[in-house]
Amino acid sequence: MTSINLADRGVDLGEWAKSTPNAADEFAAAVRSWLDENLTGDFAHLKGRGGPGSEHEFFAERLAWDRHLASAGWTCIGWPTEYGGRGATLEQRIIFHREYARANAPARVNHLGEELLGPTLIEYGTDEQKERFLPGIVDVTELWSQGYSEPGAGSDLAGVSTSARLDDGKWIINGQKIWTSLAHVAQWVFVIARTEKGSARHAGLSFLLVPLEQPGVTVRPIQQLTGTSEFNEVFFDDATTDADLIVGEPGDGWKVAMGLLQFERGVSTLGQQVGFARELENLTEVARASGAVADPELASRLARADIGLKVMRAHAQRTLDGDVTSQAGAASVSKLLWANWHRDLGELAMDVVGAPALIGPDATAEGQPNDIADPEHVELDEWQRLYLFTRADTIYGGSNEVQRNIIAERVLGLPREAR
């Protein structure tokens, strides 16, 4: 084991790795050891909590866990050290996400800040913006949400109509965003708004940083099929933000937004795949225990799911390693791979479990109706929750149709789809 404390923020992980034999194994052991020692006591019951369809679980406790990670130097490890990060190498970042998932550690509450906005500000933000916002992301004292989609512009981001105009040193914002993940618990939202009157499509958009806790903002949670409310609709009625809280120049919004989406498809997807692997392993055990694996069709689908997971991992590793031939359209290919795989796993889970999957655990309990419209009475097991949540996997974050159009038009050079 290393003679220095790798959780110490004073240790530049990248520089340490250069001078340390077997650095990868040593780093993995350090992460594993820290998680084993710290996912105990008050944090022990958080294991496996807060995943898709269960975002409401123990939010305050998971926020405390994220801040515990921060105090021990395990947040934003891939950021440069001058911005509060650890200078971790790509290999170290992959190792951290892998070990975190293997430990069944709770879902993070700061993903949008740490993995999306932070890297975007480092790439495109001003020095003042970095100084103002990056420390709050590193220590998890400010949470962020994403204001992209609108009722008339879901996956078609270029069609947004939310507007913003400069007036006496402030951006005045009007419009509506929808599917705004975590807006009900966040203090800030990054918003794509149309700042050039009369502009259309990709032109005239700007990327604004907007405080949510102000009179001009209304946040309304949207109930999901799982009975939880992870995302929201957000209304801006003459909401304001300071004139200098624009990332890039006015009109640069499309470029900044696309840059952010590249970060979204980054290293953390490998950790996501470890979670997928655990779901598949657990489902395979259910199939074996129930005898469902004796069904040739179900056995074949389980095998194909395992092959799909390996394909997903190979694609992610190839693109993250900087293989130039795989960079074009890589984000769209990645989204198509994991979203369709995960949706199919939810369907496979229903078929493996069989008829009991159609009945809620409390459906026969007197006075306890299993009413999906009443979240207080929704009792779903892990496979029901997986199935219901994954129905949206091929829609959010860019639908299948949009991803295929991106690949066709921007990578293969095919004509634009007729509108």
Question: What's this, in brief?
Answer:
This is Acyl-CoA dehydrogenase. GO terms for molecular function: flavin adenine dinucleotide binding; oxidoreductase activity, acting on the CH-CH group of donors. The protein has 12 helices and 8 strands.
The CATH topology of the largest domain is: Butyryl-CoA Dehydrogenase, subunit A, domain 3
Radius of gyration: 22 Å
H/E element string? HHHHHHEEEEEEEEHHHHHH
> Major beta sheet, specifics?
4 strands, mixed
Number of helices: 12
Overall pLDDT: 86
Report how far apart the termini are.
60 Å
Domain count: 3
Low-confidence stretches: 363-377
* Structural class by sheet pairing and helices: alpha+beta
Overall outline? globular
- The CATH C-level name of the largest domain is Mainly Alpha
Strand order in space, largest sheet = 1-4-5-8
Instruction: Estimate the helix proportion, in percent.
Output: 40-55%
Judging by the overall fold, what is the CATH architecture of the largest domain?
A: Up-down Bundle
Corresponding CATH superfamily of the largest domain: Butyryl-CoA Dehydrogenase, subunit A, domain 3
Strand tally is 8
What is the strand content?
Answer: 5-15%
Characterize the structure shown.
Strands 1-4-5-8 form a four-stranded mixed sheet. It has helices at residues 13-18, 23-38, 59-71, 90-102, 111-124, 127-138, 253-264, 268-290, 296-320, 330-353, 382-390, 400-411; strands at residues 144-147, 163-167, 170-177, 188-194, 205-211, 217-221, 232-242, 246-247. Strand 2 and strand 3 form a beta hairpin. The protein folds into three domains: 13-109, Butyryl-Coa Dehydrogenase, subunit A, domain 1 (Orthogonal Bundle); 144-251, Beta Barrel (Butyryl-CoA Dehydrogenase, subunit A, domain 2); 265-411, Butyryl-CoA Dehydrogenase, subunit A, domain 3. The chain has 419 residues and is of the alpha+beta class. The chain is globular. Mean pLDDT is 86; it is low at 363-377. The chain has twelve helices and eight strands.
